[in-house]
Design brief:
The chain has an eight-stranded mixed sheet with strand order 1-2-4-3-5-6-7-8, with helices on both faces. The relative contact order is 0.12. It starts with a helix and ends with a helix. It is α/β, with parallel strands linked by helices. It has 14 helices and eight strands. Helix 4 links the parallel strand 3 and strand 4. The chain is globular.
């Protein structure tokens, strides 16, 4: 037994030594801008260093064949298990074969409650019901709603578009069976953050004109990813190297989600995957010219890039509305429900929320917009961890709650 502990100690020292070498030799460890006006910059810098260290470790363990990079990330991102909640009934079910967890307030209600379908983020690769447990519990308690957290299966094991299709299946099932869960089917809201916002937007687009089921009452999109046409908008420049989700990481995660070669990242970032005909078609919806001036300080238009047909062929899915909801036609957008969009200043995806806001308003969809000046991408994921959380985590959460309570 004593020799076992000695071996564990030696292994630990070796791992620590390898990590220190990796940190010293990998310049990526030192990348990641922490703006002075971001929420709690010192804490964020610490978390970003931990995240980058985890990223380096995961990449190298994957190369060694010990564990897949995304598997290690999932284990860590699941977070600490939440304690028992005396105010909620919590049940694990399947809606149309899709795993879901339902949070029902224990307090009896005189009438049918509203329902909230929550779709978690994580680029379709990471995230789980468990990692969003605190968020869904809080929504259920504070808004007195029945919350359905969708545990869609993740890529790359389950290939695109399985994730958005499972979110659609679970939502349709809930709309059809809402009353059996004590929910008014006319008061169901779809909510998602990051890629969960992508899936939420896509679900609402798919259901907008259906007449065989109740209508979605509203959607909440928290710093959503909404287009892969242009990665050179003002927020892509301003927040290109910001903590957690840089411009390069954004494209790398998208390519991993689609099970594509990550070496395609550079031409995609440059815009070489988009033919001029498509650029011209969508310029009316996706352009720096459509971003308000206060969000374009210091912006420099990129140099024209050469279209590469082979890259376009490899990543043509990037221009599908299921990946890029901003590219949906006006006939689809005009049928969308009331919408709440939350954007963060220090987020590479900020402008996508701004552009979607404009598109919705141009199509006479009612929009409530909140902009979190000190917020950053992923801030909601820290919600519910007390001292380890951020003020912006609560700000984002409460904007969503206030909107939900209005329906």
């Amino acid at each position: 037994m004593e020799s076992y502990y000695i071996l564990v100690l030696i292994a630990g020292i070796l791992v620590a030594f390898v990590l220190l070498v990796l940190i010293a030799t990998d310049n990526n460890f030192f990348k990641g801008e922490i703006p002075s006006d971001i929420d709690q910059p010192a804490k964020l810098r610490l978390y970003h260093c931990m995240y980058t260290l985890m990223e380096i470790l995961a990449e190298n363990l994957d190369h060694l064949g010990i564990i897949k990079e995304h598997t290690l990330f999932r284990l860590i991102m699941d977070g600490l298990p939440a304690c028992w909640d005396s105010q909620l009934f919590i049940k694990d079910l399947h809606f149309g074969g899709v795993p879901v967890r339902i949070y029902l307030p224990r307090e009896p209600s005189a009438s049918k409650r509203r329902g909230v379908v929550f779709i978690h983020g994580g680029c379709g690769i990471f995230g789980s019901i468990r990692s969003y447990e605190r968020i869904c519990r809080y929504i259920a308690r504070k808004s007195d709603s029945v919350v359905v957290s969708v545990g869609y299966h993740l890529a790359p094991e389950h290939k695109y578009p399985a994730q958005v299709l499972e979110c659609l299946t679970a939502t349709v099932h809930f709309l059809k069976t809402a009353e059996s869960h004590g929910v008014d089917p006319a008061r169901i809201i779809v909510c998602g953050d990051s890629a969960g916002g992508t899936f939420a937007a896509s679900v609402c687009q798919d259901l907008g004109h259906r007449t065989d089921i109740p209508k979605i009452r509203a959607q909440v999109l928290i710093y959503p990813y909404l287009q892969a046409l242009n990665f050179n908008l003002p927020s892509h420049q301003k927040n290109a190297a910001v903590a957690f989700l840089s411009r390069e990481r954004t494209v790398r995660f998208i390519l991993k989600y689609l099970n594509k070669d990550c070496s395609l990242g550079k031409p995609v970032l440059a815009g070489s995957h988009v033919p001029e005909s498509i650029n011209s078609k969508y310029r009316k919806w996706i352009s720096p010219d459509l971003i308000p001036d206060e969000f374009k300080l210091g912006y420099k238009p990129p140099h024209p890039t050469l279209f590469l047909p082979q890259v376009h062929e490899e990543v043509h899915e990037l221009l599908e509305p299921q990946i890029s909801p901003l590219l949906a036609e006006d006939a689809v957008v005009c049928g969308l429900p009331d919408t709440c969009i939350v954007t963060c200043e220090h987020d590479v995806l900020r402008d996508e929320g701004l552009l979607y806001k404009k598109r919705l308003e141009d199509n006479n969809v009612r929009v409530t917009w909140h902009h979190v000046e000190k917020g950053f991408h992923g801030s909601l994921g820290f919600f519910g961890y007390g001292f380890f959380s951020f003020p912006s985590s609560s700000i984002v959460m409460n904007h969503a709650i206030d909107f939900i309570k209005g329906y």
